[in-house]
Amino acid sequence: MNGRFWSLGGLNKKGFLEEKKLKEFYSEFSDILRRYLERRFGIMALDRTTREILSDLKIGDFSSGLVGKVKEVLESSDLVKFAKFAAPRALAEDLEKKLTEILEETKPEEKKEDRKK
Hints:
The protein contains six helices and no strands. By secondary structure, it is an all-alpha fold. It has one domain. It is globular. It starts with a helix and ends with a helix.
C-alpha cells in the first residue's frame, strides 16, 4: 500500500497551494494521513479529533518518534484549517516529508512470494 502516490500526487495536481486555498489543501492533506491510519492500522481517524487519534497511537505499540510525526502533521494542519494560520509554502513541503517518513516507517514488510514477482 503506497498511500503517498495515490493521494499526494492527486492533491498536488489540484493546485490548492498555488491558488492560496490553504484550508482546502491542509484538510485534504490531513485526511490522507487519517485514511492511511484507518486502512493500515484500523485506527478510526476520519471522524475523530487529533487528540483522540494521538491517544490511540500512544496506547498502541507505536514509537514516540512516529507519534511525534503524526502529531506534527495533524496539529499543523489543524492550525491552518481552524485557526486560519497563514502557513508558508515551506510548511507544506516539510509536512509532505514527514508524511512520507511515516509511510516508509510503517509500510508492511514484503512477503517472500511478493519479492519473487
